[in-house]
Write a structure and sequence with these properties.
With about 325 residues, the protein is mainly alpha-helical. It has one domain (about 5-314). It contains 13 helices and no strands. Helix 2 (about 40-60) packs antiparallel against helix 8 and helix 4 (about 100-105) crosses helix 7.
Length: about 325
Amino acid sequence: MTGPTSSNSNLGIYCVLAGMFLISMNDMFIKAMSGDYPLHQIIAMRSGIGIILTFGVLMYEGGFSLLNTGKPALHILRGLLIVFANSAIYAAIVAMPLATANALYFMAPLFVTLLSIPILGEKVGPRRFAAIGVGFVGVLIMMGPEVAAGASGLGWIVVLPVLAAAGYGLMSVLTRKLGATSRASALTIHLQVAFLIVSGIMYLVAGDGRFVTADSSASAQFLLRAWVWPAPEDTLVIAGLGAMSAVIGYLLTQAYRLSNASAVAPFEYVLLIYSLFWGWTVFGEWPAPTVFIGAAIVIASGVYVFVREGRRRS
């Protein structure tokens, strides 16, 4: 398979930068609504609106025939991975500062680089392997104080962003693989359908709130709270989330279609800047010093991986 051109790689980077800004806004609004609605109801309403908008793009790019795929199993796996990643990261952001959750989530680009070896056949040398190992050390620095604190801290919840990063990393690599034969709009619709199906199952299983109590953690309540009819003042926010969902899905799908996965992924680190801004201005949050130290190590590792990637391809 022919590698991406320089112009396509640059466009992929621009797509990631724009997508990260919209993701930060999406995270902020979802956290703000987490005390009133369950996660999978928000996702269902968001995806219902998003899929309508994405169908418009699909018609522009070629019509319903683009939805046909010769690899249904991989598309199903990709959809389940993004649902898992979203559920894990959103369950985390209600219990910790936005920037802390996203700093831990920054392992995703390193997972992308690691997973691109067996799935995409990309070459990763010993120096980039070492950088990935250093990145894991940065994550341990961020997680350590909370894990040590046990019940008095975040406990097991601190692991959720890392699990989300692993799921997202694998999903991103599959996007690169499937993007060789599928358009961005079709790949985005597949994800929206996965969100809707899983949200419908969650409604049938836990939509009445039977599995949550007053003693449940904030994350468990967000995942399992009973579904309610949206308040009129929230409908505009939900519509905005749906529009952002469609645009985010399209931007990130395009990014990994147009660029090498290990080259474009490190630019997702700009999300930390956006998350710090929203967390501070909207929720009055500020991460612990260890988060900044660990995040700096992870970001440095990711940037090194990107620089090595660029030199290898030059």
